[in-house]
Structures are given as C-alpha cells and as structure tokens.
DNA sequence: TAGATTGTTAATCGATTAACAATC
DNA sequence: TAGATTGTTAATCGATTAACAATC
C-alpha cells in the first residue's frame, strides 16, 4: 500500500505517534504493540496499524513494533532526517517566539535569516542572526538556498512577500498570518491560524454538547 | 437541523467563513451567495450551505446571505459575542507573543493574570498586568472567575497545572505545550501543537504527490 | 509449537457533494 | 411573475473500525 494517496488525517497523526514513541523510548521501552499505542494515544489499534501500513510494514507479527526503529522510520517519513534552511519574516512577538522555538533546535532547522520592516530593530542581532530589511529577502533566500519561510507578519503584506519567496524557489511556507495564501502547487503551505484555534475553543465552551473530547 | 451533533470539521470552517465575511464586509459588500463564498473560500457552495444550516436558516432564497447579519450570527455561534477572562501561564517567548496577540484585542478577551516561575521576571509588569509566581495561580483564577487559561509552558509541568486549573473551575484551556492533557469532559481543550504543524509541512515538502494543495 | 500481533481486506460509519423542490 | 438561490434530501465518496488470515 505504498503507492495509494495518503490523506491529510493520516499525516496529521504521525507527529503524535512520534511524540509518544519518544516518550516511551526515553523510558527505556524497547517494543510496543498497536494495542499499547492505542491505550496511550487514545486512537484505535486498528487505525494505528492502518496508518503505519501506508508507509511500510514496520512491525512484526507476534511482537509489535521496535520503538527506536519506528521512530527512525517516522523521522524519514516526516522528512526530519535532513537539514532545512529557514528564514523568519516579521520579527514581532510571534517571530521572536519562533526563533527560540525549541522544536527547531532538536531537529535540523537552521535559521539563516530574519527580516522585518521596522528601522528600530533592523541591524540588531538575535541569536547571532542579523535582522535585515525585507528588501534584502530575495537575495538571502536565493544565496542561502532557503527551504522554508516562516511568515510572522500581518495579513496585508503576506501575499506579496509570498510571491517573492516563490520566485526565489522557496519550497515550504509556515504561515502565521491570518490569510489564505495563493501558491503554485509545488510550494507547500502549512497554516497556523491562531484565530481559528481560539474560536474553536470558545465555540465548544458554549456548546459542550458537541464537544468530542480531546482529539 | 438545529439539534444533530455537529462535527469538528464544520466548526473548524466557521472561523474561515467569518474571516471572509469580515473581508467583504469591509469592502462594503452587503449580500453574498453561497456560490460567491465558494469562489473566495475554495470550498463548495453546497458545503457552505450545509455547514451554515446546522445552526439555522440564515439565508434567503433568491437573495443569498446578508453579510453583516451572518457575521453577527457566526459571532454568536462561535461564542465571541461575550467577554472572557484569560490568564497566561508561562511568560516565555510564546506567552509574551500571545499577550500582544491582536486577536485578543478585537474581541472580548481580557488578560487578567500572567504567571511564570522565573524569579527574574516575577514582579515585572507586562501590558499593565503584574507577572506573578505560579503559586498564586489558583487564588487569581478563583477570584477573577477566569474562563480560559493559556498554557505556554513546557510539557513537564503542564498536566499538574492543568489539574489545578480544573479544580478552580476553569472552562477552557488553550494549550501550546506539546502534550496531550487529561481533562474532565466539561473542560474544553484546544491544542496548538506547533511541532505537529511543522512536521506536516516537512512531510509534504518531501511527498509532494500527496499534497492536497491549500486546505 | 502455541500465543501474540501484525498486515490487510471487508464492513461500517460519517462527511461531502449533487440535485432539486421550496420560496423569496 | 420569472429568476435566483436557499434549505434539505439523496447519492457518493472517503475514512474509520472490525475481523481474520498470515506469520513471527
């Protein structure tokens, strides 16, 4: 089943599997069955096996899955077995939070550029990276072969900057601006729409009857 | 159809509808059809009508929907027609980013407390709110009748703090810690798992064939 | 070998899309 | 009224769950 198209729902569960595997791996646990994973993740054992089998047969009948092995497979599947060059665009609150985001440091994400349009902070250094004017964005993205751009800017300039990034060959955009960006199909977009998340929270606080519990 | 259980997928689309209604409302557009909404949101007209009809019949045959009216209805549905008292727990990068999060200011979210465990910042003020030691959390949450707690702390202490919040009658938790919190069913949890989002991005950057395009 | 647990197919369930009668 | 567009039912599509043969 390595060829069929894999749905977003499956992909969104992979980081969860990975997180729990790290957790039990750190406890020194060597093997785990889909049933045990089911218990700790809250997903069904059937779904876990089904999900993993989209990518290969990583388990062994009568045994289960080797924790370290499966972790490494998931890293490969999720593409975090290799390094990425990253730029942060917009160095307000969110941008600076992301610079120090611990998720970056563990894995191979390297922030090679920070951009803003405020004269007050341009020229400053943050984590040894000089904050540059957005006008220098294209030069840096091209020269440093940047893979991922983080958009931590308001909605208004986001599409224009995105278009420039695309022209410079960016491969992925992690977008924190509250806007749906238009992109060619070969550039991957992942949105973090905080407004949507917060409104989902308030919805369920007022409509507990629909609340499905922790997802 | 006002009574059937409404799925998460529907709820997650409401903020999107709301955002586009604000957008066209600001342009002075008075009425909009599901077909027009379809064009700008990228969802099908059928789905839009279906979604809205879970909550009531807001449109009018032959006319469409009144933009302002629908906006107000969505505000009621999503529960942002009323104020919320909020505390921020953990005043590192993410916590301070959220304090200034513009989504709060537009709506009725009021930050009534900020907590941290670092002696260096306890006692400081941020946006006129004094940063307090986490030991004072329960007192403030109880006294100020806090509705929502934002967890911007590491995974390790998150469950313990959550248990305290629950004991003080918190109604909702907006969780930025990379952990699946255990909660009674009457306390609503909304997770922002940045690690999951980032790994989804890298997955699709490496498996473009599965990339469904902007979602 | 016997027991356990996977990989995978089939059955069920739920969500999306299509169609159209109702009605403004 | 005629045209447009909703609200809603029925059809389709896809994802989850159940079941079990394969096999370690």
UniProtKB/TrEMBL annotation, chains A, B:
InterPro entries reported in the protein's UniProt record: CoA-bd, NAD(P)-bd_dom_sf, Rex_actinobacterial-type, Rex_DNA-bd_C_dom, Tscrpt_rep_Rex, WH-like_DNA-bd_sf, WH_DNA-bd_sf
Ranges annotated as DNA-binding: 16-55
Keywords assigned by UniProt, alphabetized: Cytoplasm, DNA-binding, NAD, Repressor, Transcription, Transcription regulation
Record Gene3D superfamilies: NAD(P)-binding Rossmann-like Domain, Winged helix-like DNA-binding domain superfamily/Winged helix DNA-binding domain
Subunit structure: Homodimer.
GO cellular component: cytoplasm
Native species: Parvimonas micra ATCC 33270
Domain CoA-binding: 79-180
Residues the entry annotates as binding NAD(+): 90-95
Protein name as annotated: Redox-sensing transcriptional repressor Rex
């Amino acid at each position: 089943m390595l060829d069929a198209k894999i749905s977003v729902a499956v992909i969104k569960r992979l980081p969860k599997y990975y997180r729990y595997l790290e957790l039990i791996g750190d406890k020194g646990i060597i093997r785990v069955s889909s049933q045990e994973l089911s218990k700790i993740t809250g997903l069904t054992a059937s779904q876990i096996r089904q999900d993993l089998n989209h990518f290969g047969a990583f388990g062994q009948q009568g045994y289960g899955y080797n924790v370290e092995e499966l972790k490494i497979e998931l890293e490969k599947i999720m593409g975090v077995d290799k390094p990425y060059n990253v730029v942060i665009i917009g160095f307000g609150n969110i941008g600076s939070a992301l610079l120090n985001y611990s998720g970056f440091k563990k894995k191979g994400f390297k922030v090679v550029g920070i951009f803003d349009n405020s004269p007050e902070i341009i020229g400053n250094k943050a984590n040894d990276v000089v904050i540059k004017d957005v006008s220098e964005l294209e030069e840096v993205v091209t020269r440093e072969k940047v893979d991922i751009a983080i958009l931590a800017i308001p909605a208004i300039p986001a599409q224009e900057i995105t278009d420039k990034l695309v022209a410079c060959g960016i491969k992925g955009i992690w977008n924190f601006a509250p806007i749906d960006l238009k992109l060619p199909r070969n550039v991957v977009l992942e949105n973090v729409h905080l407004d949507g998340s917060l409104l989902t929270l308030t919805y369920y606080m007022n409509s507990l009857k629909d609340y499905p519990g922790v997802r």
